[in-house]
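Subject: for your reference before the review

Hello V.,

The reviewers asked for a structural picture of the protein, and I figured it would be easier to keep everything in one thread rather than splitting it across files. Below is the amino acid sequence we used in the manuscript, unchanged from the supplementary table.
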Amino acid sequence: MGETRYPIGGDKVVRFGYDDMRYGCLCTFPFNYSEHKLGMGTVESLALMGAVLCMSVNGGLEEVEYADDDEYVIPDCLPRWVRDEIRRVLGDYPEKFDEGEYDTDHVPASISDEDYKNMLIKRFTDIKEWAEQSIKDVENSDY
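And here is what came back from the structure prediction:
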């Protein structure tokens, strides 16, 4: 991901982060969808791209320190609340469970198997608690 840059006006472009495998690639959209079926990653990518397009016109995109001067990088150029709301609407867990103490993709090579296992257990336990609360919130709302 990240190889395709999309112009968004002026000299600015937007691209997806290079190692964000979470998102569906849009570089061949819609031509690689002959069965007219979209996966969750592609829908999330389209929502993020739409948010970037709107915010490039209306304001609110955030500079990303590792981006070139003329580019914005998805998802980091979008405010956290936008990213979390897209995930919420798609029925996904908040982004906070992918970073910091939960970041299982960027652990040191020296981590023991036991520490890695404990890290995964904590992550999944906390996601489970979040999911249980979300279920209660849905049950008690006017969906």
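For the response letter, the relevant points are probably these. The longest helix spans residues 113-139. The chain has a mean pLDDT of 86.

Happy to draft the paragraph if you're swamped.

O.
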